[in-house]
Design brief:
By secondary structure, the protein is an alpha/beta fold. Helices cover 34% and strands 20% of the residues. The chain is built from 8 helices and 9 strands. It has a 7-stranded mixed beta sheet with strand order 2-1-3-4-7-8-9, sandwiched between helices. Strands 5-6 form a two-stranded antiparallel sheet. The radius of gyration is 15 Å and the shape is globular.
């Protein structure tokens, strides 16, 4: 059992928290109440960033001490939304939220994953007609292995997980968010994910 803090109680955070609780982990969700994120992070082994990506860096930088030595799983994408509320551009072109977080939090092990799919797929990858891919980006091999184990608890098969390498590779998966609005406009909010097929 892992003690997990989920920062963000929207659809993404709530979905992950429910699935991880069902898998037997001790999960605490931090909403928007002042101090809630700090209190949750302080007592967790793993922290999941499911907050809106455009404000994540400021929020998490304020939790530097609480996140020291922790694994920070970043599932958010930092985007500038268009008039329809869908992603239109990246907040960190030429970089990524995950890289910005790792630079700001050098004592924290940042791992980027689950950000290339609509949120229902994060906890039900087998529901799609074709196997999806969960990408891993991060500089710490042990942290990535711990995240692999949590993904297995969310029903991700080993062969569906691809380790892309260091945290710098997160800029590639984060840029994939720019596919999302076009796919949604073409096909609606039907769950989908990026997948590497061979």
């Amino acid at each position: 059992m892992t003690t997990i803090a989920v920062l963000g109680n929207g659809r993404v955070g709530g979905n992950l928290a429910a699935a991880l609780t069902q898998a037997g982990h001790a999960v605490r969700v931090a909403g928007r109440a002042p101090g809630a994120a700090a209190e949750a992070a302080r007592t967790a082994q793993v922290v999941i960033n499911a907050t809106p990506g455009s404000g994540s860096l400021e929020l998490l930088t304020g939790l530097r001490e609480e996140l020291r030595g922790r694994i920070l799983i970043d599932v958010s994408n930092a985007t500038v939304d268009g008039p329809d509320g869908l992603p239109a551009d990246l907040v960190y072109p030429g970089s990524s939220l995950a890289e910005q977080l790792q630079e700001a939090l050098p004592a924290t092990h940042v791992v980027k994953t689950l950000n290339t799919m609509l949120f229902p797929v994060m906890t039900a990858p087998g529901a799609l007609t074709q196997p999806p891919t969960a990408f891993l980006s991060g500089d710490d091999p042990q942290a990535k292995e711990a995240v692999r184990e949590l993904l297995a608890d969310l029903n991700w098969r080993k062969e569906w997980i691809t380790d892309l390498g260091g945290i710098r590779t997160a800029r590639a998966t984060e840029a994939a968010i720019l596919f999302v609005p076009h796919v949604i406009r073409a096909s609606g909010f039907t769950p989908f994910a990026l997948s590497i097929t061979r």
